[in-house]
């Protein structure tokens, strides 16, 4: 009986051990399955599918690299280099459109310069002038760029509308091109359709012709390109240049296009000779604000939403920037008077008599200048130079401020001027000044 009892106890212990071992095995198998599940989810996050939304390119290095690729393709087209063109093209496009090394140039060429003479053809250069650029990402290294613009040349003002898609592999620094006819065929020339575009490849293999390099683009390069773009528009297409002026500035400065046209005529020399000597950059809710001072003491402000997507202020006093408003609101009334006197001086140096006239106290204006033309004539005769100023102590008398300044012209001649000012709501003010 005792032996049977011991046997039963032994069997029970063995059963417990078996159950424990089985439980441990099941536990570790479960852990491994969970681990695999997590790893699979992680892999999904790394190997993600193409984004469903297109975005404007906001990285300047990638933007400029894309422009460089487009120009490389156009140069091959200009040189009628069929082999180079063939090796730049997307292989799927090559297959679908029956492209060969022999016919690649003929298939993609859109340039026609029959009206140019031999000398002009020998010195001809072409490049793309970007209107819009959108990006859709397939993976961490594959990006697809939808580039919309015009082909321009250095000989005449002809612009040829041209759109293309650039597949870019940032791991291998390689690219493929889908030219204008492909973009038209699949209606990717409308931004409404580009989110349906997909690619099947995971990387772009390198050949002798489809390589590129990223270049670190600094702020000075961006600013100079914005200025060059505006100068070119002013000379070649004044109406188009008007579209680059910020709407709030346009409303405050130019009530009509004709007034803008007159302003450009009066300031053309300064605009074309503009060279930036100093600048600073402020981040805004929508992008960046480049505040630039040129070699003649003029301010220009570029409000950037994305790379090469910007609007312009042609001075820093007509419309107050957010930076100015913030600073102004923190100042004492005495310092606010100096800020406003500085606006007067800037407008004076730009012969912006309309701005000054709009700031005149009503009584002062009626007593001294019956019309704007009379005021303008007086200002042109009295202030016929460009000036710097020395500011003396500001004083207050019954809510009115008096600011004594000394104007110094380009020849070093000095003259005193008394500015009388009243501060209004926000950054507004009215003023008068001593009349000879």
How are the SSEs ordered, and which strands pair?
Elements: H1 2-46, E1 55-56, H2 60-78, H3 82-88, H4 91-96, H5 104-108, H6 118-122, E2 126-137, E3 142-153, E4 159-169, E5 174-178, H7 180-185, H8 219-236, H9 238-242, H10 247-253, H11 257-272, E6 276-283, E7 288-294, E8 299-306, E9 309-313, H12 322-330, H13 333-349, H14 353-358, H15 362-368, H16 372-382, E10 387-397, E11 400-409, E12 414-423, E13 429-433
Antiparallel strand pairs: 1-2, 2-3, 3-4, 4-5, 6-7, 7-8, 8-9, 10-11, 11-12, 12-13
Task: Summarize the structure in short.
With 436 residues, the protein is an alpha+beta fold. It folds into three domains: 55-196, Nuclear Transport Factor 2, Chain: A; 219-322, Roll (Nuclear Transport Factor 2, Chain: A); 332-433, Nuclear Transport Factor 2, Chain: A, CATH 3.10.450.
Keywords:
single chain; 436 residues; alpha+beta; Nuclear Transport Factor 2, Chain: A; 3 domains; five-stranded antiparallel beta sheet; 16 helices; flat
Describe this structure in words.
- This protein has 16 helices and 13 strands.
- It has helices spanning 2-46, 60-78, 82-88, 91-96, 104-108, 118-122, 180-185, 219-236, 238-242, 247-253, 257-272, 322-330, 333-349, 353-358, 362-368, 372-382; strands spanning 55-56, 126-137, 142-153, 159-169, 174-178, 276-283, 288-294, 299-306, 309-313, 387-397, 400-409, 414-423, 429-433.
- It has 3 domains: 55-196, Roll (Nuclear Transport Factor 2, Chain: A); 219-322, Nuclear Transport Factor 2, Chain: A (Roll), CATH 3.10.450; 332-433, Nuclear Transport Factor 2, Chain: A (Roll).
- With 436 residues, the chain is α+β, with helices and mostly antiparallel strands.
- The N and C termini lie far apart (135 Å).
- A 5-stranded antiparallel β-sheet has the order 1-2-3-4-5. A 4-stranded antiparallel β-sheet has the order 6-7-8-9. Strands 10-11-12-13 form a 4-stranded antiparallel β-sheet, with helices on one face.
- The protein is flat, with a radius of gyration of 34 Å.
- A hairpin with a 4-residue loop joins strand 7 and strand 8.
- The longest helix is centred in the first third of the chain and has 45 residues, at 2-46.
């Amino acid at each position: 009986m005792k032996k049977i009892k011991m046997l039963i106890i032994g069997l029970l212990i063995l059963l417990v051990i078996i159950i424990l071992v089985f439980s441990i095995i099941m536990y570790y198998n479960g852990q491994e399955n969970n681990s695999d599940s997590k790893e699979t989810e992680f892999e999904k996050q790394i190997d993600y599918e193409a984004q469903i939304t297109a975005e404007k390119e906001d990285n300047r290095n990638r933007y400029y690299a894309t422009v460089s690729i487009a120009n490389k393709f156009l140069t091959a087209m200009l040189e009628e280099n069929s082999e180079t063109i063939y090796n730049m093209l997307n292989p799927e496009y090559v297959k679908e459109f029956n492209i060969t090394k022999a016919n690649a140039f003929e298939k993609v060429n859109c340039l026609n310069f029959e009206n140019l003479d031999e000398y002009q053809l020998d010195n001809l250069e072409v490049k793309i002038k970007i209107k819009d650029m959108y990006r859709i990402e397939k993976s961490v290294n594959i990006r697809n760029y939808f580039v919309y613009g015009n082909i321009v040349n250095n000989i005449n003002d002809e612009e040829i509308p041209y759109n293309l898609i650039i597949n870019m592999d940032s791991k291998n620094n390689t690219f493929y091109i889908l030219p204008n006819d492909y973009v038209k065929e699949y209606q990717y020339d409308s931004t409404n359709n580009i989110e349906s575009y997909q690619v099947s490849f995971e990387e772009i293999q390198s050949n002798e012709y489809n390589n590129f390099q990223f270049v670190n683009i600094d702020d000075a390069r961006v600013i100079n390109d914005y200025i060059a773009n505006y100068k070119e528009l002013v000379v070649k297409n004044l109406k188009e240049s008007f579209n680059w002026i910020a709407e709030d500035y346009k409303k405050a400065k130019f009530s009509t296009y004709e007034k803008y046209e007159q302003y450009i005529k009066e300031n053309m020399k300064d605009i074309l000779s503009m060279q930036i000597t100093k600048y600073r950059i402020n981040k805004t809710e929508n992008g960046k604000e480049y505040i630039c001072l040129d070699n003649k003491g003029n301010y220009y402000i570029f409000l950037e939403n994305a790379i090469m997507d910007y609007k312009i202020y042609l001075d820093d006093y007509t419309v107050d920037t957010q930076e100015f408003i913030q600073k102004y609101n923190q100042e004492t009334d005495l310092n606010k008077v100096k800020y406003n006197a500085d606006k007067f001086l800037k407008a004076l140096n730009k012969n912006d008599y309309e701005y000054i006239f709009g700031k005149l106290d009503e009584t002062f204006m009626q007593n001294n200048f019956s019309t704007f033309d009379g005021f303008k004539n007086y200002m042109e005769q009295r202030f016929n130079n460009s000036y710097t100023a020395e500011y003396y102590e500001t004083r207050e008398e019954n809510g009115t401020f008096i600011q004594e300044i000394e104007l110094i012209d380009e020849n070093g001649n000095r003259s005193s001027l008394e500015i009388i000012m009243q501060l209004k709501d926000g950054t507004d003010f009215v003023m008068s000044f001593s009349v000879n």
